[in-house]
Amino acid sequence: MNTLPGKTVERLSEYRRTLLGCLNEKRNFIFSHDLASLLHINAVAGYFKGKRSKLNLVASFDNDPQKINKVISGVRCYPYHEMEKVINELNIKIAILTVPVDYAKEIAEETVRFGIKRILNYTTVPLNVPSGVYLEEYDMITSIEKVAYFVKENKY
Hints:
Blueprint: H1 6-24, H2 32-39, H3 43-48, E1 60-62, E2 71-72, E3 75-79, H4 83-89, E4 94-97, H5 104-113, E5 118-121, E6 134-137, H6 140-152
Parallel strand pairs: 1-3, 4-5, 5-6
Antiparallel strand pairs: 2-3
């Protein structure tokens, strides 16, 4: 079995502790942005910074006035209604969805309509996209639960 890097183990431990706290508070679900807020991290934006020269996170979009026009980990947050314009101006090719579940399908449809052909879905909502659009779905909660299961069962 491969050994996980120390930082990954630390982050998984932080996720687990936070998620168990949510369960104790009778919360049955949590959004990725809520988890990031509870852990005081800038989820996706901070992760990409300086990791790959050809993969750059260049824009984020929101409808929250507290986030619009702010720069988080070097990435400007644009108003949601400017998404089509910014996608075209910055020649964005990949969308990473970290939106509340109620908006996931709508946002995915819009990004495809605006020319995005590659989507990484971090929401818990399974998406259907047209042929010709590559979709990768990653449910962090399921992955964390899987790791926790193997820890509990001493499988590894």
